[in-house]
TrEMBL record:
Gene3D superfamilies in the cross-refs: Glutaredoxin, NADH-quinone oxidoreductase subunit E
CC cofactor: [2Fe-2S] cluster
Entries under InterPro entries matching the protein: NADP_DH_HndA-like, NuoE-like, NuoE_dom, NuoE_N, Thioredoxin-like_sf
Annotated protein name in UniProt: Uncharacterized protein
Keyword Nucleotidyltransferase: no
């Protein structure tokens, strides 16, 4: 892990001002930010570990926990909520046997909720790996998830 982190940092000329970009690249490599990688990053940049953690925990896009290969976001904004977004979320939770904010044991799926994705006319909306699935219904959940297994 040490060599990989150093290589990523070197891509940014060891510039502390590029910390967010470096963290993005580390997360892209490991699908989350492993503690060991953050310690190595701190040492390589000469930046206090507390500062690295401060940035890593400030942005919701970063995860300090292992994430699934597929990221599922369920919109619970007003339009999606009134059109059944919560029921869709509950159906996904049942299918995957996890709650929102968690990752399946096999690391295939991470399930999260979002407040609004800006396509209210399509609600309820589920996004898997950046692909929007509009007008989602509970009876479509199993088939949707099977596309990603």
């Amino acid at each position: 892990m040490e060599e990989k982190v150093e290589s990523i940092v070197d891509n940014y000329q060891r510039d502390e001002g590029m910390l967010v970009s470096i963290l993005q690249d580390i997360q892209a490599e490991y699908n989350y930010l492993p503690k060991e990688a953050l310690v190595e990053l701190s040492q390589t940049l000469g930046t206090p570990l507390s500062q690295v953690y401060s940035v890593a925990t400030f942005f919701k896009a970063f995860s300090l926990e292992p994430r699934g290969r597929h990221l599922i976001n369920v919109c619970l904004g007003t339009a999606c909520h009134v059109r059944g977004g919560v029921r869709v979320l509950e159906a996904i939770e049942r299918e995957l046997d996890i709650k929102a904010g968690r990752t399946t044991k096999d690391l295939k799926f991470t399930l999260e909720t979002v407040n609004c994705v800006g396509c209210c006319a399509l609600g309820p909306v589920v996004i898997i790996d950046g692909e929007y699935q509009g007008q989602m219904k509970t009876d479509k959940v199993r088939a949707l998830l099977e596309n990603y297994t």
